Amino acid sequence: MIAISLYTVVPGVVGGSETYARELVRTLEIEHAVIPPARGGASAAARLGRLVRGVLRRASGFDAIHYPLTVPVPRANAPAAVTLHDLQHHFLPENFSRVERAYRAVAYDRAARRAELVITPTEFVAETVVERLGIPHARVRACAHGIDHDRFRPDGRAREPFLLYPANRWPHKNHERLFEALRLLDDDLRLVLTGSGHQGKPVPEGVEVRGRVSPEELVQLYRTALALVFPSLYEGFGAPPLEAMACGCPVAASDAGSLPEVCGGAARLFDPRSPEAIAEAVEDVLRDPEPWRARGLERAAEFSWERTAREHEAVYRELVAGGRRASGGPA
């Protein structure tokens, strides 16, 4: 029996990591038990705390525990795997307060160092875990996230004259340079933004802010945009380029972080610190979109949540076998 802790999920806030945790639980085939999110106020949290303690008291049947949201809560006396989604605080520390950096050093870095195995969404993050945290390669496993192909798929509708950037207004998402690039492009080309954090912040003419959108609206934007432009300065995985590709939308993406690995040659890459490079990449994609669309569909097809689940199951079996060897039991 594998315990999977969703205790630190904050529904609707943690984005791609929440999707990963929920899709992983949905597609696993091995026997597992889920520790649910803490939400609903103090009394609900207290009830949930009693539930979790009760689950863990009966957890002698748990062979291992996985923390897909990184933070090892609640603690359990069992071999543990921690998913470390990124190490942005090591690469872009200026984006975090001193308090947040201190928190991440404990909740992320120390949690990874103490875990028996560390799961990452890309080889890029796996390599940085080894380099920045000093964790041996032998304890790190890269397991890519998936795409829901029942939801993200083309529907043949016509493309409209706008670019799409689905991203919260966080510093590393690099909106300001994208706005500069937009000024270098055709005046008739609009930019549509989704995600939180835009309220009260200025945007130039030609930019439409949608804010948080429903999953259905996001799919329709992928299906009708001329292209996705993704100028992020850092990603540990980066699902939107793959989601867009799966919908037949050509992609121009940053060459930073994990994005070259994830896009796999199916996106027109650019230097995200250069507005001119961003504009040039968009123009290249729009000039001849069909090859990018075809490569994108082919690349996106390689990612599924079923494959993600199978790769995690292999990690769980390895974790359990290691725990049994450590306890002197049969592997």
Description:
- The structure is a single chain.
- The protein has twelve helices and twelve strands.
- The strands form two sheets. A six-stranded parallel β-sheet has the order 2-1-3-4-5-6, sandwiched between helices. The protein has a six-stranded parallel β-sheet with strand order 9-8-7-10-11-12, with helices on both faces.
- The chain folds into two domains: 168 residues, Glycogen Phosphorylase B (Rossmann fold, 3-Layer(aba) Sandwich); 141 residues, 3-Layer(aba) Sandwich (Rossmann fold), CATH 3.40.50.
- Helices cover 42% and strands 16% of the residues.
- By secondary structure, the protein is an alpha/beta fold.
- α1 packs across α12, α6 crosses α10 and α8 crosses α11.
CATH architecture name of the largest domain: 3-Layer(aba) Sandwich
Given helix and strand content, the structural type is alpha/beta
User: Mind telling me the C-alpha Rg?
Assistant: 21 Å
Looking across the biggest beta sheet, what order are the strands in?
2-1-3-4-5-6
Number of helices: 12
